[in-house]
Specification:
Layout: H1 8-27, H2 30-46, H3 50-63, H4 68-80, H5 84-97, H6 102-114, H7 118-131, H8 136-148, H9 152-165, H10 170-182, H11 186-199, H12 204-216, H13 220-233, H14 239-250, H15 254-267, H16 272-275, H17 277-284, H18 288-301, H19 306-318, H20 322-335, H21 340-352, H22 356-369, H23 374-386, H24 390-403, H25 408-421, H26 424-437, H27 443-454, H28 458-471, H29 476-488, H30 492-505, H31 510-522, H32 526-539, H33 544-557, H34 561-574, H35 579-591, H36 595-608, H37 614-625, H38 629-642, H39 647-660, H40 664-677, H41 682-695, H42 698-711, H43 716-728, H44 732-745, H45 750-763
Helix pairs in contact: 2-3, 2-4, 3-4, 4-5, 5-6, 6-7, 6-8, 7-8, 8-9, 8-10, 9-10, 10-11, 11-12, 12-13, 12-14, 13-14, 14-15, 15-17, 17-18, 18-19, 19-20, 19-21, 20-21, 21-22, 21-23, 22-23, 23-24, 24-25, 25-26, 26-27, 27-28, 27-29, 28-29, 29-30, 29-31, 30-31, 31-32, 32-33, 33-34, 34-35, ...
Length: 764
Amino acid sequence: MRMRGQSPFWCGLVAIGLMAGLLAGCSRDPNVRKQKYLESGQRYFDKGQYKEAAIQFQNAIQVDSRFADAHYKLAETAMKMQQWPSAFEELRRTVELQPENYAAHLDMAKLLLAARQAKDAKDQLDLVLKAQPNNPDAYLALSTYNSLNNDTAGALASLQKALQLDPNRSESYLYLAALQMHGEQWDAAEASFKKATELDPKSTNALLSLAKFYEIRGRYPDAEPVFQRAIQSAPTDPEPRAAMAQLYMAENKLSDAENFLKQAKKDFPNTSAGYRLLGDFYYANNQLDKAVEEYASLSKDHPRDQVVKKNYVQLLILKNQFDPARKLNDEVLKATPDDLDSQISKGAIELRSGKPGDAVNILQAVLKNDPQNGYAHYQLGLAFDLLGNTQRAEQEWRDAARLRPDLAEAHRVLAGSAIRRGDASVLAQEADQIIALQPGAPDGYLFRAIAEIDRKKYALADDFIRRSLEKDPRNTTAYVQRGNLRVAQGQMAEAQKSYQQALDIDANSTDALGGVLNTWLKQNQPEKALAVATEQSAKNPNNTGFHIMVGQLLLTQKNDPVGAQREFQKAVDLDRNNTEAMVKLGMVQNQQGASDKALQTYMEGAKNQPRQIVFPLLAGGVYQDRHDWDKAKQMYQRALEIQPENPIASNNLAYVMLQQGGNVDVALAMAQTARRQLPDNPNSADTLGWAYYQKGVYTSAISLCKEAVDKDKENLTYNYHLGMAYAKSGQKALAKQQLDHVGKIKPNSDEANDLRRLLTEAKS
């Protein structure tokens, strides 16, 4: 007889139930869960799927906010995605939770060095070296610190210490090669790069460094196979593919680069950095229509990819498609209100929608949260530039280039500033940066050519123009610069040939026609210049710039203000938003005595372009000439609303206030502000002198008014003010000399009568 008990089937079910209970218990254990998220994130990380890795590491942190290992892995992932602020914050949190994590301290030091925050980086390095005095990585970072402080000897000593501690580290030789390149020791640098690849044949960094060295040296055939090796060593990493495409661009093989990146897009269907390469290539080569089309497709195929969305927004902004850009950007901000990239894009949209003041507020708020955001500094510079604060704009652009050396647009605007200042040295530096970042773009070579023309290194300038034309054979600007070079060399026939080549490519190029006209004027043939300009304008009657050129030649070479006004009027009729046309029309109208028409022109210009300061300045000048001080004051105040730091508006408003009998102290302060910005301008000297006169400080008044007269001896106002200052200071003989001179400039003028009356009162 069998004993009664549970059947084998029932026992199996109980066992399974107990097992399930145990498993369920494990899944609820936070330590197990966070570890599983960490391991899952590491698997994604190893495959180069950084976005997915980041999600898993964040999941681990949600389980345990003090899980230092997850914070550190999230920092490493952010660094791979070049999300530097997030990376730094995660590193900061890591070392807070795990002070003995010296690898995290070292990574913080490296990020700080990249941001040029040398002092803070040194604090981290000191901490690491104190705990790990034989850490070769720390000495490599210390070498970088020394380099940033221009301590070449210290950099080399730190590097030698790293090599002594571990002579077989590939990375040490990469640092050594960089130092050797800085010293233009090209053969030694190549040997060090090769040594690095020999020590670690599969190191993507070493292979890319050697290949880029060859590329920089123009040794393209040597570079390509090394780039191929880098691709083979890291098939899941998009970076070597991007570097290979960069090489094709440097070789001007744009179709090869495009086809190569089309294949790369197929090879990385799930990796954002990979499938974005093609769209980024179009952007880098100024093929904005293709870039927009590509990113529209990517946005559709990868609707959850925030990087794609944000890049697409920036492209739409560049294409002036503000409504779709704003809509898409608002979607990102709705999902992630604290996203700084999208806040910057919001500022950029406001900026390009004619609201620079709003843009400044938005961008300054971004920088309050992230002072090291280079792109925000760049956009803020654009906003300040539009507001007329050029000094602040350039400072922001310098910060942008320092924090984001890879931001080509920052280097472009700095190059433009260098051209305006005539600083060939800075221009050459910025040009080199653009060439290194975008070797396929023609403008970097042209910037460098302009610098070399200014430095009279004509052969070098010629070579850079040739290289620019290799990138874009139909680049009219390159032919114009070649014409400028030939003018500088005194080769007028060759200059005309180059300008004509530009006109043949673009019959509406004002720069090209301006170059042709300049060559005729330099040869003292104004009739020929006028004939060419008239002929070209007749061929292209809708070209506003050509009408302006004809009008200017009629005015300056033929003394024909009627004909000039006719041409300027044609230009205005074609484009009522053309500032130059409106300004020139108003000025010739005013010169002909039609000040009412001039005012009408200026006020229309101000209405059409409310952020353009020139119109209220010119209108204020007309009212000032009429001694209509109230309206002149209104115009200058409007100009200062547009550009609060504008020295001309400050100077003129100060003068009007002095003439009105306004607050002399306020006028004096404004005149001093203008003088600081216009130290060589006779008008600023005279206004400040007149302010001192009103204050009774006659010695300063005489000094400044005399400076103005010395620079413009026949200016009625300057001579009158100097005479008045002499009279008030008791220097009657000198005052009498000024009275005689004022009388010669304009007999029986109010100024002469006023000065004569003051001298008469002084005698009595």
